[in-house]
Amino acid sequence: MSSYSDFDLALSKLHPHMYGKYVFLSERDGLPAGLEPFAQIREEEGLTSIVPLEQAKAAGLAAGKRIYRRITLDCDVSLEETGLTFTVASQLASQSIPCNVLSGLHHDHLMVPAARAQEAISLLEQLSQQAKGWLQY
C-alpha cells in the first residue's frame, strides 16, 4: 500500500520556471512613474520593489545593482503547507545559492542571482524527480 503526503506530492510537482532579470530597489517616496514592479514590500526604511532589469535601466536605476532571476514554482500549494519553502531553500543553500522567497496565494517565487539561476533550476528539477520516486513506493 502506497503512502505519501501532500508535501511529497507538492515536491513532485514543483515545475520550476525561470523568468526575466530583476533588480531590487528601495525608494522612500515610491517608484518613478512608468515602472511596473513584479512585487513590492513596504518596510520601515522605504518601499522595496522588485523591478524588471530593463525598466530599471531605462529609468537610470540599475547601475551597481545585483541582478536576479525569478524562478516560479508551478505547484499550487496551500499557504498552510509546512516545509516546502524550507526544503526548496535548503536544496539551494546546499550549493551556496542565495534565495529570496516570495509567497503568493498560488505560487512561491524565488529570486536567485542571475549567474546561478540555471544551476538553481537544475537542483529544483532534481528535487522534484526525487520526490516522484518517493511516490512510486
From TrEMBL:
InterPro entries: ACT-like_dom_sf, CASTOR_ACT_dom, DUF2241
Every DUF2241 domain range: 12-62
The protein's name in its UniProt record: ACT domain-containing protein
Chain ranges of the CASTOR ACT domain: 68-125
Organism: Varibaculum cambriense
